[in-house]
Write a structure and sequence with these properties.
The structure is a homodimer. By secondary structure, chain A is of the alpha+beta class. Chain A has 10 helices and 11 strands. Chain A binds a DNA duplex through helix 2 and helix 3.
DNA sequence: GTGATGCTTCGACGCGGGTCGAAGCGTCGA
DNA sequence: TCGACGCTTCGACCCGCGTCGAAGCATCAC
């Protein structure tokens, strides 16, 4: 993971969406051959998996544990110096709302998580995980989130991970991913042109306020 | 962190105790000159700090965030293949009880944490941290743990980190470190000859049972 | 003072690995 | 069937960096 190109690839994969080899070569700024070599190494190291689809090969992170390592590394890495106005805007957008692997993060993510706790919709079970309360069941049913299916999934139901910009936790796990997906479906968030970036829409702001009593700063 | 020698050094520092440059050279299996070069790099990278003491230079991890990265990396690293009976015994000992940076981990660590939660001595505040309950205040006072001093410390009071052998959380932060230190003082645990290893004593077993209703498997 | 110890700096060596050009292989569309 | 496209494999280059010997600089013991 210590190589510049590989680090760029892993960061690009951090939002959970699978990317093709060519795309990864582009974000890493290396040739296709070089990228192929790097991807082989990452795959042998168990950091990424690959699925063939036609003449494309799509790569994604092996699991949330890998994502956690990358987030943890980001936390202790020296901040990227901002060079241009565009970079500055991008950084600000990412700080406001973004995906972390496949769930909501940034200011919106931590605010949403705090609202879920404060509103008594989920509660910690003392074992690093969270459970949905009766009140939460009801509220999420309104949002057409299928909790039974999420619980049946092999994946961890709900946990949190520390947000590297906000230094506060946000929701992850199957529940975090499902809620994030649903909110995007509802048009509460739209994906930005920058990778991982999300933008909170007007409907999203009122929706979060009405349904979750969540005010995003 | 990707270099073998540096990784060995960082792992050796994971129990929080500062080590001298020569000691680190020994655990990494390199010469003093090479170790010096590595330590310079780690220092420039902000991963470790150094304090001079006479003709010795003691190194320690920069903070708990660095320790978290190392633990996270350990979690996704391929398990070290066991070669000898000695290694196997060491691994078993570490799995039973060890220090993680400066607090209790392993089976004993996760059992202790669960007992604190189940006994209502601490409770999560929903923000990734924990507070001591009134009942907990009382119990810890009996153990002569100075909570006021811990709260005054600049360090985070109490949190958890995921145990990489047990896959369950254990207590960290100022409270985790203080409790661990106190239990060692009381002779509940003794430091093993292997780095980071702790051994649960007979008094420790009864003490944990009596004071915390904690049964270590 | 003198010598020993702990650590760093300097210099030189050599290997590992990241890099890309060229070629090969499978897939898709016409 | 043919060419375009996406990706991998092979081969060669070469820079970077981990390594240690030798020397230098502190500190400690006597």
């Amino acid at each position: 993971m210590a190589d510049r190109a590989r680090a760029a690839m892993l960061t690009a994969l951090l939002d959970g969406r699978p990317l093709a080899a060519g795309e990864l070569a582009r974000v890493a700024g290396v040739s296709a051959q070089t990228a192929s070599a790097h991807l082989t190494k990452l795959r042998e190291g168990g950091l990424i998996t690959v699925v063939k689809q036609g003449r494309h090969r799509y790569f994604r992170l092996q699991g949330h544990e890998v994502a956690q390592v990358i987030e943890a590394l980001t936390r202790i890495s020296p901040p990227v110096e901002v060079r241009s106005l565009k970079q500055s805007r991008q950084a600000a957008a990412l700080q406001a709302a973004r995906t972390c692997y496949d769930h909501l993060a940034g200011r919106a993510g931590t605010a949403f998580f705090a609202a879920l706790i404060d509103g008594g919709l989920i509660e910690p079970d003392g074992r690093e995980a969270y459970e949905v309360t009766a009140k939460g069941e009801e509220r999420l049913h309104e949002l057409e989130v299928d909790l039974a299916a999420l619980r049946a999934a092999r994946r961890r139901f709900a946990g949190h991970c520390l947000d590297w910009t906000e230094r506060r936790p946000h929701l992850n796990g199957a529940l975090g991913a499902a809620l994030t997906g649903r909110m995007i479906e509802l048009g509460w968030f739209v994906r930005g042109n920058t990778r991982r970036a999300l933008t909170l829409t007007g409907e999203g702001r009122t929706g979060l306020q009405d349904v979750f009593a969540c005010v995003v700063p």
